[in-house]
Amino acid sequence: WGFVATRAARGKIQGMPYGNCLLLSDGPVNNSTGIPFFYVTPKDNTVTDLLKNPMASLTLPEADGNFCRKNIIDPEDPRCARLTLTGQMVTVPPEEVEFAKQAMFSRHPVVRKWPRSYEWFFMKMNIEHIWLQSW
């Protein structure tokens, strides 16, 4: 999972920062690409924002990494790294959908059971900037 930040495109918070945690995958376990793929629904406010303005940032905490866990350090401690990727979120083109499906479903099998009525589709981030906070 990661934290995706957008610029709100709706209601009283239009134009303000908005964020949400989303599941992601950069490929099947044996074929990581470094490109974040997301399985999203237009019912999610984050997706509504992205469809109007595709610029976003994605922050990945080291909460799941070994260093913080092994050393019993809180994930918010500055010694636990954070990676922030910034770029454009785009709908995955038809020729990449099968790869995106394998990427997401192999790492997060539970998403196969999510309600189909939510009109799920795949997005990916075209990374433009990388910032690593590692003290």
UniProtKB/TrEMBL annotation:
The CREG-like beta-barrel domain, residue ranges: 1-135
Q: What is its main location?
A: secreted
| Pfam families in the record | CREG_beta-barrel
Query: In which compartments does the protein localize?
Result: Secreted
Q: Which UniProt keywords apply?
A: Glycoprotein, Secreted, Signal
The record's GO CC annotations read: cytoplasm; endomembrane system; extracellular space
Q: Which family does it belong to?
A: Belongs to the CREG family.
Report what the protein is called. Answer: CREG2 protein
Q: What is the scientific name of the source organism? A: Aegithalos caudatus
Gene name per UniProt: Creg2
